[in-house]
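quick q for whoever's on today - can somebody do inverse folding on this one?? i tried earlier but teh output was garbage lol. tokens:
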């Protein structure tokens, strides 16, 4: 995630093209460090600015946020200077992470004057500053005193300047001689040398330039031939020419369906990564809105599901220990038949046992071989036989009980694993609510009850509105994917008809995938795409390929008493599919 000088240049170019000449018709401050400027320029645009320390942003948006009843002081001041003002320019100094919005308005005397709204995107030091035409600070959304920063005060009446905390070169005017003399000679990795020496370059872009030049970003340029440095400079020069010509190509890199990076230039360094998909955009603002919405959604769901994940993880850890102990005890019961044979042989050959002997060798009539049987010398042959029969009976009872218990524990582990996989699939709070309901139904979470007047305590049921995913194949067939065990059961045994096709990842937790056949013979491509969905919505999502079982729904059965989502089938086909779903269309029902 690189909100660097190149992305800022792309944003500045888009804002300049869209907003220059427009009038500011509304100013709001929904949060203490956020602004929304509504600009009328043929169409109406909303410019979102955030000086949040964790996520500073500036882009055009279509969304709205409620404003406080009483406008903050900075918002009131900005309304005084900026209401009905005309935007005359939007610029970026060099490749700094700074956007300067210059606007013209009438002062108290009715004379035109120019003000500057400066957006600084500098991580925790981000700020929104209002200046006059002489670079004097009128006010800022964050006040920075000398006690906070020894580099620059941001207070009314102070001079505005961009702080130079590091000595960096301007890549827009960097010569080959300066590059070779001051950057290529640094005894640090080539990638690090680029972003630490040049304004506006992020580690992502530095690594991209090294990749384009065929240079190892981890190796210093000073230990490589000079032509390597010249080649890297040529790639940098080509990039700078693209920036100066406004030749941007906004794109998001998705890895296994999750947005991981964005940039305003093509990122060839991700071409070698398995499962990486590039989504191009025409607008950097639309890209930023989509990217951060997707990231926030992913992060928010992970946070909201943390408690459920912890409950499931603890339950799985407990059951794994119990299951291992049960298997160990089951293994100990394997010698039960040996004790039964000892008892039977002693009953048959007991007459030949000499009292006081510690063992006896007899012929095993089951195998025809000689068998040595240990004896308790204080007991008779018949009592030794009874002792072995008692041990056999005890181990047999233990085996029968443990066989049942270990099967129950294994079923519970599979159930817990399926819930954990469903938590990875969940996309919103409704999905989590249905999973929480399942966990309460099976006792993993205590259900809370509501007291009513008659003294009864009915269960407090969650209102569920989560629905399965609905995809449409390339050939127009509807494909449905369950998000959890309850939806899997509903899809398979209530929604699907007998001649629909059923898909599931082999031998691992995952979604039931139903293809509505419409009574037709499906094209091969539909089977491939449904297999990809079954692979993606399974525990094998991170694998290169996943084996998928598929068959007609009529042959899928649910055993009596089986936990939700669990089925059996005996005749099926198999295919191997990659967990990739980018070519499929998600339908909004």
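ok took a stab at it. sequence:
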């Amino acid at each position: 995630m690189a909100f660097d000088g190149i992305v800022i240049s792309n944003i500045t170019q888009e804002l300049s093209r869209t907003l220059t000449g427009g009038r500011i018709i509304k100013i709001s401050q929904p949060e203490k460090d956020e602004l929304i400027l509504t600009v009328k320029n043929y169409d109406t645009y909303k410019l979102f600015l955030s000086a949040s320390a964790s996520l500073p942003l500036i882009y055009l948006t279509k969304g709205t946020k409620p404003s406080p009843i009483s406008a903050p002081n900075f918002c009131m001041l900005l309304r005084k200077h900026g209401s009905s003002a005309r935007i005359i320019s939007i610029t970026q100094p060099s490749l700094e992470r700074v956007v300067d919005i210059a606007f013209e308005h009438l002062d108290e005397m009715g004379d035109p004057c120019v003000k500057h709204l400066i957006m600084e995107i500098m991580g925790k030091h981000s700020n929104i500053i209002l200046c006059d035409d002489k670079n004097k600070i009128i006010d800022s959304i964050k006040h920075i005193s000398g006690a906070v920063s020894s580099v620059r005060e941001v207070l009314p009446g102070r001079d505005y300047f961009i702080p130079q905390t590091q000595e960096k070169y301007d890549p827009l005017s960097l010569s080959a001689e300066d590059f070779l003399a001051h950057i290529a000679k640094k005894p640090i990795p080539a990638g690090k040398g680029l972003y630490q020496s040049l304004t506006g370059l992020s580690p992502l872009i530095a690594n991209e330039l090294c990749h384009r030049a065929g240079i190892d970003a981890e190796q210093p340029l000073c230990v490589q031939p000079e032509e390597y440095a010249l080649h890297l400079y040529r790639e940098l020069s080509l990039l700078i020419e693209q920036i100066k010509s406004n030749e941007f190509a906004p794109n998001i890199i998705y890895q296994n369906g999750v947005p991981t990076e964005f940039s305003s230039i093509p990122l060839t360094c991700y071409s070698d990564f398995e499962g990486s998909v590039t989504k191009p955009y025409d607008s950097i603002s639309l890209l930023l809105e989509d990217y951060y919405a997707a990231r926030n959604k992913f992060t928010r769901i992970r946070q909201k599901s943390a408690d459920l994940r912890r409950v499931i993880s603890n339950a799985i850890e407990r059951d794994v220990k119990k299951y291992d102990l049960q298997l160990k005890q089951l293994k100990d019961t394997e010698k039960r038949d040996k004790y039964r044979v000892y008892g039977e042989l002693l009953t048959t050959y007991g007459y030949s046992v000499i009292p006081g002997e510690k063992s006896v060798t007899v012929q095993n009539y089951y195998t025809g071989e000689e068998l040595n049987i240990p004896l308790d010398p204080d007991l008779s042959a018949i009592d030794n036989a009874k002792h072995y029969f008692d041990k056999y009976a005890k181990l047999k009872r233990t085996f029968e009980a443990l066989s049942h218990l270990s099967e129950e524990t294994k079923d519970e582990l599979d159930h817990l694993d399926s819930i954990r996989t469903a938590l990875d699939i969940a996309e919103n709070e409704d999905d989590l609510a249905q999973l929480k309901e399942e966990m309460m139904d099976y006792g993993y979470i205590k259900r809370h009850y509501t007291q009513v007047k008659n003294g009864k305590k009915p269960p407090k049921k969650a209102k569920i509105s989560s629905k399965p995913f609905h995809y449409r194949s390339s050939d127009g067939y509807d494909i449905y994917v369950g998000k959890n065990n309850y939806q899997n059961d509903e899809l398979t045994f209530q929604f699907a008809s007998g001649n629909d096709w059923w898909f599931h990842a082999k031998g691992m937790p995952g979604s039931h995938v139903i293809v509505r056949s419409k009574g037709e013979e499906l094209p091969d491509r539909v089977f491939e795409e449904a297999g990809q969905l079954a692979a993606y919505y399974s525990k094998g999502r991170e694998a290169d390929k996943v084996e998928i079982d598929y068959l007609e729904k009529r042959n899928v059965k649910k055993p009596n008493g089986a936990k939700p989502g669990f089925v059996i089938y005996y005749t099926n086909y198999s295919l191997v599919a990659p967990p990739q779903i980018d070519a499929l269309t998600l339908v909004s029902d």
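fwiw The chain has 13 helices and 21 strands. also The mean pLDDT is 89. so keep that in mind when u check it
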